Every structure is written in structure tokens, then in C-alpha cells.
């Protein structure tokens, strides 16, 4: 285990097993559909790559990027798109992937944007649903795990752009972010 990690929440094996299950479910649900899987850079890239390989269908992978939100975005509830999709999604079945649903601002804002392009369907798959008190209730179609309101990193999730490449998800030691 990395020296900056306090505890491992989800091991490589936990992630592999759960993502396999999600892939099977999505394969069943989207048989004979025109599936476009969309992920949000950068955090969801690793989840995207593993989940898509667990889906046994012909599908398209596309990416978008948004600006990190700060106080300003929290008040407006809108995130700014920095990189748009490469393909059109009108009339197609879109599955929007996120590594983590925290306040939900990013996902809900992107759903509004994508919905305005008139896809045939638009659903969500998140690897982690963080349990926080401030969060609005929201119906997510596919959820990998619920997780506690802790500072977590790994498997795509970063702190100051580090730890994304850890193959597991763990809780960061408080002294790591307190020393900044
Ligand atoms: C993280 C994560 C989600 C978002 C979730 O992205 O990847 O996109 O925050 O938080 P929310 O539910 O409160 O909106 P971040 O802005 O850290 O950028 P990254 O994907 O590059 O890590």
C-alpha cells in the first residue's frame, strides 16, 4: 500500500468484480441499441476503460472535459465545458460515466447539456456515490459502490493531480492534505 494511504476502501479485486457485474448488466440492458459511452476527464478515464471492456456490445467511446468547480460554480450550479464530445448524440443511447458523484453538480449540469441535444436515451453510471448530508437526492441508473464522505484517491481520483494511478481506492492520510 502507498505510504500516503490510511486505509484501502475498495481493493483491485473489489473493483474488478463490481465493474464486471456492471458491464454484464449494461450489456443486457443495451442489447441492439446504439450505445455511446461518454466519460468526463480526467477522473473517470480509468473507470471508462475498464467498464467499456466489460461491456460485450458494439459501442462508441467519447470524452468531454469540464472546468473544476469552485465557489462560483457551486452558486451557479453550472460547470463549464472545456472539451466537447467528438460525435453527435442526437437519436442515440447515451450512457454518461463518472468516477464519483459527490455534490452532484458536475453530473447534473452535464445531463442538462446532453439532454438538450436530444439523445434517444440518457442514463448515468457512477463508480462511487459519496454519502454526504448536503447532497440532493438524485436517481442514478448504475452505481458501483456507495462510499463514506472521506478524502479518497486512487483508480482515477486525485489529490493535487496525484494518486490517480493507484490500482485501488483508498482514504488519504490527513497529514498529506494538511501539510499543504
Ligand atoms: C471530480 C470527479 C467528478 C466531480 C464530482 O472531478 O471526477 O467529475 O469531481 O463532484 P461533484 O459531484 O461534487 O460535482 P474534478 O473536478 O476533481 O476533476 P478530475 O475529473 O480531473 O479529477
Summarize the structure.
By secondary structure, this protein is α/β, with parallel strands linked by helices. The chain contains 5 helices and 9 strands. 27% of the residues lie in helices and 30% in strands.
Verbal overview:
The protein is α/β, with parallel strands linked by helices. The chain is globular. It has a six-stranded mixed sheet, with helices on both faces. It has a three-stranded antiparallel sheet with strand order 1-9-8. It is built from five helices and nine strands; from the N terminus they run E-H-E-H-E-H-E-E-H-E-E-E-E-H. It starts with a strand and ends with a helix. It has helices spanning 12-29, 45-53, 71-76, 105-115, 174-178; strands spanning 5-10, 35-41, 60-66, 81-83, 93-101, 121-130, 142-147, 152-153, 169-172. Helix 1 crosses helix 2 (45-53). Bound molecules: 1-O-pyrophosphono-5-O-phosphono-alpha-D-ribofuranose.
Characteristic key phrases:
6-stranded mixed sheet; single chain; 3-stranded antiparallel sheet; 180 residues; alpha/beta; 5 helices
